[in-house]
Specification:
- With 536 residues, the protein is an alpha/beta fold.
- It contains 17 helices and 20 strands.
- It has helices at 13-24, 65-70, 104-111, 113-137, 150-167, 171-182, 185-192, 196-207, 219-225, 246-258, 301-308, 316-323, 364-377, 422-440, 444-447, 456-463, 515-532, and strands at residues 3-9, 29-32, 44-48, 51-54, 80-82, 87-90, 96-98, 230-231, 234-235, 239-241, 262-264, 269-275, 278-284, 289-297, 331-338, 357-360, 379-388, 403-412, 448-454, 499-501.
- The strands form five sheets. Strands 1, 2, 11, 12, 13, 14 and 20 form a seven-stranded mixed beta sheet that branches. It has a seven-stranded mixed beta sheet with strand order 7-6-16-17-18-15-19.
- The longest helix has 25 residues, at 113-137.
- The chain is globular and about 65 Å long.
- The two termini are 22 Å apart.
- Bound molecules: flavin-adenine dinucleotide.
- Flavin-adenine dinucleotide (FAD) binds at residues 9-15, 32-35, 40-42, 56-59, 62, 268-269, 298-299, 308, 331, 333, 408, 459, 463-465, 470-472, 503-504, 510-512.
Length: 536
């Protein structure tokens, strides 16, 4: 089929979500993916003989429950289980924090009675604001449009709807909301808590995928962004997709194919065809042309506009802004095959804490230093790491008795100072990451029998994540909501007729949510119906 209604660039989970909704509504859909696998950054692969793991994204919470239900993802094989404990933070002095249902308060109280009282209010505050955010996730943010007309009218109604969500909030919550959008997580946490580990628990979320100090203004929003998810109806909880994150993409692909969508892997897009100011299809790397009424892009917007569309076809000011789109994640990702489970000095032996997200970054000061170090040196010599051992919840990933672990390391510069290449430094940083875990869990290094390394450069080359940006663009106020990816284009429509954004570069941003794909499908369908009203 080289002529279709919609061609979608990229079979990331958002492209697949968009495809499934559009196909379900009766449109002919073709998804073209450059890699030989689908799912984008949510993918499971064998990285060492007999050992499989989620290659990039590794833990699930943000995936929207409406999308799971609408697309019958459970029937298409998706099973998400909760961790038995949420987070485990060991400290070098042997103390630790272990959170999760029925555990958090007692564990915090062992560190600080004051914090045990405060954490209840703070979690409630965060949860109340996360609830507000949830109401915005599956709706296009108000879009700024010039002039009058149907589009302006539609946006005025949208703005009214958004305003009424906010108007319903008590004044105190509005103040919290403003704080969480503008302030630094570090400042807010220092004001409330005294224990380093408690601050680090929240502070870690503020620097995940955010190449910044936890004391950078705006980092509180990144913390909030990681709080709007849920697992099996439990808000704010993180879990594991059996089979790894690839199970999400596979289930979405199943839903899309069930309704007739065609998904082709190993089929990269070289160029978007533009005819008379309208996106009219794509040309693939092998020269094949796919013509379509609508083109939806699931790739990083800067990649789309600076590499896949001719500059002459784009408004000059639009392109200039897109060239300045900020990709800034600074993450270094590894998978390791383990002969045995690690044993932590702070809590030796097996236990539920080994199912948790294990955060090695025991204070905000440590995280702040890590960022400063990375700015100067390219990476932090004392890295902040989240370690997750999904094989403690899922026996499909490793041979019996053996395990796999994801290592997600923050604060590795998107590009290295002094012109050095990540290709020359990746092994050295990988050794450092393993040695760092070994300090908390002696013997860990010896148990590593295979490893996969993804530097920021590898993430860019492998997945098209420019600068290794895990969110397709930093989650800063100037790149969020009505400004994602740009004021005037928050309605999933690009600057060319027939061109749409369905990936994480659109609202509500990165994470395995499915939301940009869902929202873009709604807009494409509405434009399609308007175009063909009276023609059917
Ligand atoms: C290391 C890492 C860890 C993460 N951890 C988590 C986590 O634990 N939990 C979580 O919720 N989120 C996590 N994230 C974020 C989350 O994975 C992403 O935000 C999300 O998966 C992006 O989905 P997407 O569909 O928008 O885009 P992508 O998954 O980036 O999909 C885009 C697709 O487009 C394809 N493509 C690129 N160029 C072309 C082209 N020219 N032609 C055709 N196809 C093309 C790519 O190959 C890719 O498959 C992580 C991301 C990374 C990188």
């Amino acid at each position: 089929m080289n002529e279709t209604d919609v061609v979608i660039i990229g079979a990331g989970h958002n492209g697949l979500t968009c495809a499934a909704y559009l196909a379900r509504a009766g449109l002919r859909v073709k998804v073209v993916e450059r890699r030989n696998a689908l799912g984008g950054a949510a993918v499971t692969e064998e990285f060492h003989p007999g050992f499989r793991n989620s290659v990039a994204a590794y833990t699930v919470s943000l995936l929207n429950p409406k999308i799971i239900a609408d697309l019958n993802l459970a029937e298409h094989g998706l099973k998400i289980v909760e961790r038995r404990a949420q987070n485990f933070l060991p400290a070098p002095d042997g103390s630790y924090l272990l959170t999760g249902e029925g555990r958090t308060l007692a564990s915090v109280a062992r560190l600080s009675e004051h914090d045990a009282e405060t954490i209840v209010d703070f979690s409630r505050e965060l949860e109340a604001i996360a609830d507000v955010l949830r109401q915005f996730v599956l709706r296009a943010p108000p879009n700024l449009v010039a002039g009058f007309g149907t589009r302006a009218l539609r946006e005025a109604f949208n703005a009214l709807g958004s305003a009424s969500i906010l108007r319903g909030l008590p004044l105190a919550r509005k103040r919290d909301l403003l704080d969480l959008f503008t302030r630094s997580a570090g400042e807010m946490l220092d004001e409330r808590f005294e224990s380093d580990l408690v601050k680090a628990l929240f502070g870690f979320d503020a620097i995940v995928g955010n190449y910044a100090s936890p004391y950078a203004p705006g980092s509180a929003y990144v913390m909030l962004h990681h709080a709007f998810g849920e697992v099996n109806g439990k808000k704010g909880v993180w879990g594991h997709a059996i089979g790894g994150m690839g199970a999400i993409g596979q289930a979405m692909a199943g839903a899309a194919r069930e309704h007739g969508a065609e998904i082709v892997v190993g089929s990269g897009v070289r160029e978007v065809i533009v005819e008379q100011g309208r996106a009219a299809g794509v040309i693939l790397d092998d020269g094949t042309t796919v013509r379509a009424k609508y083109v939806a892009s699931g790739v990083n917007p800067k990649l789309l506009y600076t590499r896949l569309i001719s500059a002459q076809a784009l408004p000059e000011e639009f392109l200039a802004r897109m060239q300045r789109w900020r990709n800034a994640s600074g993450t270094f990702r590894m998978n390791v095959a383990l002969s045995t489970l690690p044993s932590f000095d702070a809590l030796p032996g097996d236990g539920d804490h080994l199912t948790a997200g294990i955060i090695l970054g025991p204070s905000l000061g440590y995280m702040d230093r890590a960022w400063h170090d990375a700015r100067q040196h390219g990476w932090s010599r004392e890295p902040v790491i989240e370690l997750l051992i999904p094989s403690t919840l899922d026996d499909t990933l490793a041979p019996a008795g053996a395990h796999v672990a994801s290592l997600f390391c923050q604060h590795a510069a998107p590009s290295l100072p002094d012109g050095r290449s990540w290709d020359d430094c990746r092994e050295e940083v990988a050794d450092l990451v393993i040695a760092t875990v070994d300090k908390y869990a002696p013997g860990f290094a010896r148990s590593v029998i295979g490893r996969q390394i993804l530097s920021p450069l590898d993430l860019e080359r492998e997945f098209g994540l420019l600068g290794g940006d895990i969110f397709h663009g930093a989650l800063t106020l100037n790149q969020l909501f009505s400004a994602r990816p740009m004021l005037g284009h928050a309605d999933y429509r690009g600057p060319l007729k027939g061109l749409y954004h369905c990936g994480s570069g659109a609202h509500p941003g990165g994470g395995v949510t499915g939301a940009p794909g869902h929202n873009a499908a709604r807009v494409i369908l509405s434009d399609h119906r308007a175009l063909f009203a009276g023609h059917d």
